[in-house]
Amino acid sequence: MVTIESLLERGYFPKEIVPAFNTRNLSTILDDFDFSNHQPKTSKCLIHSLPKTKDIRRNLSIPNPKHQILLSKAIADNWIKIYSFTSQSRISKSSISVELDNPYNRAAYPGNNFNIKLERAIQASGFSHCLYSDISRYYSTIYTHSIPWAIHTKQLAKANYSDNLYGNLLDKCIRNTQDGQTLGIPIGTDTSYIISEVIGSAIDSLLYDNLGDKLQGFRYIDDYYLYFGSRSEAESTSRKLHHILKEFELEPNASKMLIMDLPEPIEDEWYSDLHSFNIGRYSRNQRDELLIYFSKTFQHYKNFSSQSIIKYAVSKIKKLSVFKENWELYQSLLLQSLVADSGIISIIYEIFSLYRTRGLQLNINKIHSSINKFLVYQAELSHGYEVSWALWLCKNFEIQISEEAINKVLNVEDSIVGIIAFDLIKNSSLISSNVNLDRWERLMDSSELYSRNWLFAYEANFQGWSSSMPDYVASDDFFSILKSNNVNFYNPGEDNSPSSEGEFFMGY
User: Fold this and answer.
1) Which of 26, 131, 160, 384 has a CA-to-CA distance to 256 between 20 and 30 Å?
2) Greater confidence, 506 or 269?
């Protein structure tokens, strides 16, 4: 059973962010929290830009803790009804599991260890056509009023706007996390995954009402793979699915809706090539094998640049036992890969950490040059994920940050970036140049505690970086409770770096 404690401790912050950020002790304030005090009524989410593919990004959203607590309580209080509703889907492969012992360390996750490629191979048997469709920008386009429509039907929900219908309560709580907006739900929280499964299950039920036992296939988050004996049946279902999505103010992704003749290739050529390539753990030919493997990777990347080829290739060999004499080459190849795919910065950090524990020396001069150039370029683009992980790498491997790089970094409007940067400036010798902190110091104010800068405003006060008097956190009804209970969100002494294996469910 999902609880408010689990949603706050393990289901709140997105899994992709630097591991020093966590909410493990947030639930300790619940006894002191006044659930009846809804002022301010709304707040804004912190936005953290994350790479999705080479040219596409998504914005992770971290809601203000006050309104995330209220949302988590609404879900926990109605969990039995929510779980029962989502369990009705006949085709969902992203059904909700809440087991404590799970590989993702999340509060709620798809619990069937699902493999899309394997399921496609199994379900295609006996059919001549497959309809593939996904929902365009799913999390970002969910209309919050469609939550009660999904649960209670549109007719009943429009006739009764009270919180007596728990769908209306969920709608209100979601809106309050995002400044009252009705378009979209926060990306990266387990509460949003649960809401997405509620709406997905309602769509599945309407599909079944239209097709009956002819509905064959599966849905995973917002990806549909449906199987038919003829193209005309697939085309008819495509129109029905489009109509049903319209009922929820959603749109299929027109560029990805396909009707495929079966059988079809299950694996991409690049994946099969890289997956089958083995670099000897003991072979003295390892140097040549590394060169061949990365050459193949870079060539496939040029041919299929829209896919996550670099990330897959680097993840596949991240635990490889590289011989000492090949370590310099391996570092260089990783840093070259980073130029092609900035999103692998967290994996490179993990690899460097692993090899440091094995006693191998990093080429600090080479890393210094590469990471400072990386910081300048990514900061100019306001890429919060890449900048925050690069700063975290600098902190933990004691890489000096150039004056140009830190000044670019301080222009990135991202609280996660700002907090790590302030930590480096205040508590390390890695930044020797004088920096202008005026823009960030202006955020150390009570007016920012419910803005998109809430995390920086609170942490700056908690960490003692703010000299503002009187204490703006102590005077706030909610955040004063956090501070008095010694709750904070940035703990730089902790580093439980995530594994790049087990990418799991965020449909976005």
Assistant:
1) 384
2) 269
Identity of the residue numbered 52: K
Distance of CA 64 to the CA centre of its chain: 17
Kindly list the strands in the beta sheet with 129-134, ordered across the sheet, starting from the edge strand earlier in the chain.
Answer: 217-220, 223-228, 129-134, 258-261
Q: Which are the contacts of 338, defined by CB distance < 8 A and separation ≥ 6?
A: 344, 345, 348, 370, 374
Render pLDDT for 66-117 as a digit per residue (tens, 0 to 9): 999 999 999 999 999 999 999 999 999 999 999 988 888 999 999 777 899 9
Q: How far apart are the first and last CA of the chain?
A: 25
Which residue is associated with the tokens 């929820």?
A: 248
CA-CA distances (angstroms) from residue 506 to 43, 58, 362, 416, 432?
A: 23, 11, 34, 20, 40
* 22-55: burial string, b at 16+ Cβ within 10 Å, e else: bbebbbebbeebeeeeeeeebbbbbbbbbbeebe
In eight-state DSSP terms, residue 188 is S
Return the H-helix or E-strand segment holding 430: none
345 neighbors 338 (Cβ within 8 angstroms): yes
Q: Is the pTM of this model over 0.90?
A: yes
Query: How many angstroms separate the CA atoms of 284 and 281, rounded?
Result: 9
Question: Cα separations (Å) of 414 from 46, 66, 104, 140?
Answer: 8, 20, 25, 19
Phi, psi for 280 (deg, rounded to 5): -60, 130
Contact at 8 Å (CB) between 233 and 241? Answer: no
In order of 370, 391, 392, 408, 415, the CA distances from 395 in angstroms are 15, 6, 5, 17, 17
Cα–Cα distance between 102 and 108 in angstroms, integer?
Answer: 9
Q: Are strands 129-134 and 56-62 parallel, antiparallel or unpaired?
A: unpaired
Token pair, residue 392, equals 């975290």
Residue 225, strand partner residues: 132, 218
